[in-house]
């Protein structure tokens, strides 16, 4: 009994040097320009003196105690302070009309830190 290979006729013939003579590259197609992003447009407008945000700056909220809320977002933090020291600092902030964050920054600036 002999077994014949049914796939012998499917093997490709080796390439000859003349087989690639019809090969050509794709023609160059000019791509359309992409639209600039919103950030690029905003930067270009600012460079020319235009502003895209014509809304006035938001007003700072007044707190119940008459102090004004901080314009910069604060990071929550826990501190262990003496009650007497906290009361003195709190009164200082109230008298100066400062938030706790602004009062802290004011004292650091006065100390040159």
Offer a few descriptive terms.
113 residues, 3 helices
Write structural notes for this entry.
The protein has 113 residues and is mainly α. It has a domain at 38-111. Helix content is 32%, strand content 0%. It contains 3 helices and no strands. The longest helix has 14 residues, at 83-96. It is elongated, with a radius of gyration of 37 Å. The N and C termini lie far apart (98 Å).
**Largest sheet, strands/sense/barrel:** none
Number of helices: 3
Shape: elongated
Portion in strands? under 5%
SSE series: HHH
Number of E-type strands: 0
Broad structural category = mainly alpha
Radius of gyration: 37 Å
- Helix fraction, binned, reads 25-40%
SSE diagram, text form:
Elements: H1 38-47, H2 83-96, H3 100-111
Task: Describe what is shown at a glance.
This protein has helices at residues 38-47, 83-96, 100-111. It is an all-alpha fold. The radius of gyration is 37 Å and the shape is elongated.
